[in-house]
Amino acid sequence: MNANYPLGLLSLLLCCICGCGPSGPATYRVSGTVTYQGEPLPLGIVMFVAEQGPSSQPATIDQQGRYQLEAVAGEHRVAVVAMPPREGGRPDPTLEGGYDYTGVPETKSLIPAKYNRHDTSGITVSVEAKQQNQIDIALE
Fold first, then answer.
1. Mean pLDDT of 13-42
2. pLDDT for res 17
3. How far apart are alpha carbons 105 and 136 in whole angstroms?
4. Which of 7, 75, 96, 125 is least enclosed, having the fewest CB within 10 Å?
5. Does pLDDT of 106 surpass 90?
6. What's the pLDDT at 89?
7. To the nearest whole percent, how much of the chain has pLDDT over 70?
8. Stronger pLDDT, 6 or 35, i.e. the higher one
9. With contact defined as beta carbons under 8 Å apart, do 28 and 73 qualify?
10. Residue 121 in contact with residue 78, Cβ under 8 Å?
11. Is 35 exposed, middle or buried (0-12, 13-18, 19+ CB in 10 A)?
12. Regarding predicted confidence, which is higher, 1 or 33?
């Protein structure tokens, strides 16, 4: 018998009793499409802010307006940001972000600014305690 056998068995028992890592509230997969004025939003991020419990991590919106994230069950307020990347700057390592955008026009959000914050968006959703939640978000 291996001399490390009792130590390995003890470690296995401790993992079974105490768990093998940090645990938090259960999260559930949420996916859907974000549309603005009936058309898929081609870029951006979406975030669910839970009424109780932790908020979701921001999820990227793809070119077809689709997103996917993990969220706790319950009611959430939603924030959506759709700001195109700024182009046309010149590299400058002395500036934050590494680019100088002097003379380059600011980019404009693809959606009204009220959607950028969960407390002004007016969008609430409910995540159910099940495996998959399909939640489409329609912005006007």
1. 78
2. 44
3. 33
4. 96
5. no
6. 81
7. 84
8. 35
9. yes
10. yes
11. middle
12. 33
Please tell me the total number of residues recorded for the chain in this structure.
140
Q: Which residues contact 137 (CB under 8 A, 6 or more apart)?
A: 32, 33, 34, 35, 46, 78, 80, 123, 125
Q: What are phi and psi of 76, to 5 degrees?
A: -135, 145
Tokens for 101? 């955008």
As given in the structure block, the two tokens for residue 116 are 């950028």
pTM: 0.74
Q: Which run of H or E residues covers position 11?
A: helix 5-18
Q: Give the H or E element holding residue 76.
A: strand 74-81
Task: Give bridge partners of residue 79 from the DSSP assignment.
Answer: 47
User: Which amino acid makes up residue 122?
Assistant: G
